[in-house]
Amino acid sequence: MKPLTREWIAKADGDFHSLGREMRARKYLNYDAACFHAQQCIEKYLKARLTESDNAFPKTHDLSSLLDLVLPQEPLWLDMRPDLEMLTDCAVEFRYPGESASREQARDAHRACDRIRRRIRDDMRIA
What we know:
Four Helix Bundle (Hemerythrin (Met), subunit A)
């Protein structure tokens, strides 16, 4: 695996662990941050996959557009699109005043992130 791919994965896992801490917090709960870290984790995993196959990608947080770039190498990932769209919306909606994530929305984001992360790690054969 390329060194830059490993860096993307390390950054993604940092977001995954931050998500876990937010979900376990007993004081100062921040479901908005949990949703943001879920989206960031998967964004970085998709960018890791693109990096590994030498595919350029734009600066974007739109997980569906990143998926479109990955699909030529990973066509079976198409079924992840609904979760990717939810994570994109979830992270963007809650970043600024006006909307806040609920506990259930954060749980949904956490579950989707975990599911997608496991699949990408399995498909990329990451130990």
